[in-house]
Every structure is written in C-alpha cells, then in structure tokens.
Fold these 2 entries.
Entry 1:
Amino acid sequence: MKFEVYCDEALPDLFTSKKPRGQYMMIGALWLPADLREEAKGKIDALRQRHSVHGEMKWRKISPSHQAFYEELIDLFFSYGLNMRFRCIAVDHTKVNLKFHANDAELGFYKFYYQLLHHWILDFNAYRIFCDLKTSRSPTRLKELRTVLGNANLSAEIEDVQPLPSGQLVIMQLCDILLGAAASRMNGAGPASPAKRAIVERIETALDRKLAPTPKAEEKFNIFRIMLQGGW
C-alpha cells in the first residue's frame, strides 16, 4: 500500500538558541493512504470556501474570527479514523548533548526526524515523505534521511523524501495545526489565546484525554517524548 507523510516542525531552533522559547523541540508527521489525498484536499478546500478562509492555514493564525473553521478542520481529521494519523516527537533541548551529533545541531535534528518516522514505517508498504522547505538547511540532509530510512526498512520502499513549501500543501498545513496544539501542551499548560485553547480542547475531547506523551501503541494522535537519558 502507498502512504504519504506530511511533516512540520515546532521550535526547531531550540538546539542553538541562546534565548529558548520553550523546553521541547517538536517534529510532527501526518500520515494517510496516498489514494485519500485528493479527497482530503477537496474536503479541506470546501471548508475553506464555506468559512472564507484564504491564505495558509497555520497554528499561529488561529483567531476568534476563524475559530469555527479550525474546529471543523479538527473534526475532519478525526472523521478519517485511522486512515489519517498524526505522530510527533518531543525532544527536551536541555538534555541534548551535541557532542553525540558531531557538534552539528542540524545533524542532531535530522536524527530525531529519523526517530519520528522510522517506527511507523511498516514492511511491504511504499512511502512518500514531504517536509516543509527550509532554504537555510543543507540540501543533502533529506537525501541522507531517505537513505538511512531505506537501509533501516529493507522490506518497505521509501520512494521519496522531498522538501516542499507548506503554503502549497493543505495537508502539511493541517499537520502544522495539530503539531501546534501538541507543542502548546508540551511546552506549558496550553495556549493563552482563547481560540487556540478551544482548538486544543476540541482535540482532547475527541481523544478523551489530555495532550501528553502517549504509549508507543497509540495510533491516532501519538506524542513520542524521547528519553535521551535512557529509561522507560
């Protein structure tokens, strides 16, 4: 079976920032069967038209004027059940030792990208992975990531790991919103904005639990807090 994976990031500069804005650097990935892509895009576009939402959908853009739209977008994500799944990795930047990554913060970042993706790649499936385009990063990193994922998953096919601008991909924008909600909980009690808080609570109501680190077996909305010092 063919799958597509849309990835985004929250606070990716925590490894190098002298004034960190949070504790956890996070990377998120939205997974769905490739043959559902056009249907999902069509439903998102219909929501946008009904609510007169233009431009890129992003967590930071959630406001009271468009709260109803973002709530319906969350409902759409849950309406797909396990045909649309979200996973993110939370990395405590205070526990990252760059000596283990050749003192290369970008290398360390992509090692965590690997940890996010590898554990949901299953044998005998094919995957196309789309990452938000970042012009400031080395152009070879995603090629290396594809190679490493392929070597670690010999019975699966990693067809591509490709950078694309998020403004062109509404499914990647949905990933940004889900990741923003998860990051807001992981980096504090939750967002101060009432509209953003309503979106977090919409997700938590659908899950019947708070947004917090989950067991490995969680399939719909998985938050993987990696333990850099060992332990369970």
Entry 2:
Amino acid sequence: MADTPIYRRILLKLSGESLGGAGGYGIDPKQAEQVAQRVAEVRQSGVDIALVIGAGNLWRGRSGIERGMDRATADYMGMLATVMNALALMDAMERMGLVTRVQSAVEMHAVAEPYIRRRAIRHLEKGRVVIFGGGTGNPFFSTDTAAALRAMEIGADVVIKATKVDGVYDSDPLTNPGATRFEHLTYMEVINRRLEVMDSTAISLCMDNNLPILVLNLWQPDALRRALYGQHVGTLVTA
C-alpha cells in the first residue's frame, strides 16, 4: 500500500439511487450523509474530488419516453433532477464542514453557479468539493457521459464509478451467485461484452483520452480510501 494517495484528483460518479430512500426513490438525508462521509475521507487524504450524480431516484426519463414523451423534454427533466440531488449532497457535506460548490450545466443562478471549467478547477485547487449538476446541459447524453467529460475537463486522474457491488461481473451477482468478478478490463472488452460499466459514449470518450475507470462499492467500509492508496479494489478499466 502506498504511503501517499496514487491519485491527485478524482471524479466520483454516483447514481441517483445512492441518495434514494426505500426502494431507491426520493432523497434520504441519511444516505446523503453517508456519501458525504466518504467524500470527507477523500478530502482528508488531500485528494481533490469532484462529483457527478444521476437522477434515477427522482425521475426516469425512459419511463416517460415509453409513454410517448418527447426525448429531449424527458432528458431536460432529468437534468433538473440532478441539480436537486446536487443540492442535497451540498447540504450534507456543508454540515460536515466541507466547503462545496454546485455548478450546473443548465443555468439557474439562484441555486447554483453556471458550469465554467476554469472556475471549477480553481475551486478544486482551493480544496473545495465541486458537484456538477445538469448533466452535459444537452439532451441525448447521460450522466455517465457528463462524468467522463467533466473528468477530462478538470484534469482528473480517474473516474470512480460508485455502485452497490464490488466491481464488474460477467452477470448480475445478485441473481447469479456464480457470477465472476473482473479485476481488470480493457475499454474494448467492456464494449464488446456489453458490460454495464458506463454507457458506450462514456466508455468511448474515456478510451479516446486514456482516462481510467474504477468501479467499486462505495458502501463497503474503506473501499474508496483503499483505492486511493493503490490497493486492488473493485474493477479497473484501462487501455
């Protein structure tokens, strides 16, 4: 195990369900506090951290689309929901003494800063936690793609995909006890095997820019901290 963190700056990608209450829906303040605690551990290690969060706990655009809703409208609603989640995370982190900034790709000056790359980097340099809301600001792109894009814009060393399982498996470990976990995958293996790491646009973006993706269980004690110090945790996706 390294004496110092192997990463200087990370982007943590969270699903909306990470804040969900019973059944994964809504915003549970206790869940937000648990995420904030994990983020606090990262900051205590001296690592810069930014976050992108989804909106599945508040709105699933796919459900609306299946009922005839316009895709762009459904996606914009999802973007607004990510800002609600970002504000919930901000509140939980501020109560723990972390200094945070929420930046939104969809401008809403009363509740969040507009996304400005150089300003985000400056916040990180000052030790602030930056939460990116509003996805990419464009419909037809997922928050996975937003995470890959923002990670490259701020110069992150890795995208950490936080899940409730301890890595990437060849099948669902919750339904198949014999599922095999991968310790390492290449980008092309993820695409060819259609493994649900991130969507294909996000994977391609990371592959084109050689940005590693680490998939781990955020709720496993010390998993995130151990990963920061170079221990083998979860599944690493590289070239």
